[in-house]
Predict the structure.
Amino acid sequence: MKPVAISCGEPAGVGPEIAVAAWRALKDEMPMVWIGDPNHLPRGTQVNVITDTATLSPDRFNVMARDFGPPVRPGDPVAAHAHGVIAAITDGVDMVQKGAASALCTAPIHKAALIDGADFAYPGHTEFLAALAHVDRVVMMLACAALRVVPATIHIPLADVPRALTASLLTDTILITHAALRKDFGIDAPRIAIAGLNPHAGEDGKIGQEEIDMIRPVMTALRAQGFDLIGPGSADTMFHAKARAGYDAAICMYHDQALIPIKTIDFAGGVNVTLGLPFIRTSPDHGTAFDIAGKGIADPTSMIAALRMAAQMARQRG
């Protein structure tokens, strides 16, 4: 298979060291290439600098080298690195779109540094990747071995969720999730559980009307088209082991409703997957971890899981 491209993320965070640790764990399973400044890698890393993926080394860390300018200080982001971080993402997208890489795995970024150094105009990776791919709507999935979960609304204040949660948004979220479960995860007939917005899924309108006015009608319309949808359910009863066995993915109405269960079930092994892009993108489900950057103690489990999932999705797509 073509290599998985890894964009370097924030150089002052744990991204460079967990990329190298993940490569050491996976180099016999899959090819990969890292895009970034080799000067930011842990000391002693055996590097193979390449200009294209035809010259990959099986026993050295393959790097598409970029010069980020000022030296890196672990735990202390430098605004001058912002353009390099953004370019690494753009280069990774270009590689997958041209077929030089099978998937893109992105290391965590630090949005404040990107804003300060490059006037970065996007809330995060997901929105930037959608813009690069010219896609109007994408979906964020968090996945681990025990659970796949999708928040319909993401990084907005809780007070804004009822207004943002429209029938169009929920319909698109279900459609994109359903298509990805079939295409990327090999599930021929996906079962999708839908959470209610309110406690007890509104309790027949006594604790809120959104389930009656919008969520149920969307589900009824899609069920008529053959979709296997469960709910709307009370979110506090959806994530124990027996409940999880009844569906392939759960769609929640807001960020914490989705992320709390998966981070409780598998904090280290969760993977962020962007659905709805024309290429595969995964990412470790954690941030830059400035407090431990450069100390050699960062846990690469989520990066390993993200790379494995990217390769599995690429194989599923053929």
